[in-house]
Write a sequence for this structure.
């Protein structure tokens, strides 16, 4: 049975790179048996949006003391290190 | 069906071999093209420059040419569009992931976005282009709109 997780995708404007990352991660995790309920926000809104989330994935720097695990990566934009980033995300969601 | 990326780039917003000393010059040049095409408001250029200073968009690709994808909030956008510049020599942007790190950028996609759900295909196509070493190399050598169209078809 697939597990369901809530992931917050953040970027500078909350509409551009986080959209690309969200689609890429949701599709890839589906193949790994994890169903993601994605949310998006600006990096500056992360603190107020983080509550109830299982993980935050961002393309830009985040505050260091968030109450939720977070991963900052450009892998889904540059294509470099994509598999490794997906492994990290999967591990964080299964933790 | 997916539209080719080139059909979503206004020919008037493609600038090849741009001579610029800094990122602001490049952003203003491309923003002016988008404004003339009716894509963005006059506030767009300043908004992109301000946002680039706070939340940079340089993407280090670990190759000869790095890319930047400057953009800003939807309130400055009238309709979605993309402007594209290849630079005669790289200019410094900051790394999206680490604003303290300089990324020397040779190719700039200035994006006017106002609806993330409707513009996901356009975004994904830009990202696919960025991830293709052949496409980037081809764009950097493009001398005409036809050359660009052949790569982004």
């Amino acid at each position: 049975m697939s597990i369901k997780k809530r992931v917050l995708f953040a970027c500078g404007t909350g509409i551009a790179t986080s959209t690309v990352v969200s689609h890429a991660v949701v599709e890839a995790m589906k193949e790994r048996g994890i169903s993601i309920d994605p949310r998006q926000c600006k990096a500056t809104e992360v603190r107020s949006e983080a509550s109830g989330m299982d993980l935050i994935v961002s393309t830009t720097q985040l505050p260091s003391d968030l109450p939720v695990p977070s991963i900052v990566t450009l892998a889904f934009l540059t294509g470099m290190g994509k598999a490794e980033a997906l492994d990290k995300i999967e591990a964080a969601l299964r933790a | 069906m997916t539209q080719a990326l080139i059909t979503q780039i206004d020919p008037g917003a493609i600038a090849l071999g741009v001579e610029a000393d800094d990122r602001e010059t490049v952003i203003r040049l491309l923003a002016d093209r988008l404004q003339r095409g009716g894509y963005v408001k006059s506030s767009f250029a300043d908004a992109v420059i301000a946002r680039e200073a706070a939340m940079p968009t340089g993407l280090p690709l670990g190759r000869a040419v790095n890319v930047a994808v400057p953009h800003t909030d939807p309130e400055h956008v009238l309709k979605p569009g993309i402007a594209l510049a290849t630079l005669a020599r790289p200019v410094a942007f900051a790394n999206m992931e680490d604003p303290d790190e300089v990324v020397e950028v040779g190719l700039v996609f200035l994006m006017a976005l106002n609806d993330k759900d409707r513009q996901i295909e356009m975004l994904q196509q830009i990202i696919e282009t960025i991830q293709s070493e052949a496409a980037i190399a081809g764009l950097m050598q493009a001398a005409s709109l036809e050359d660009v169209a052949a790569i982004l078809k």
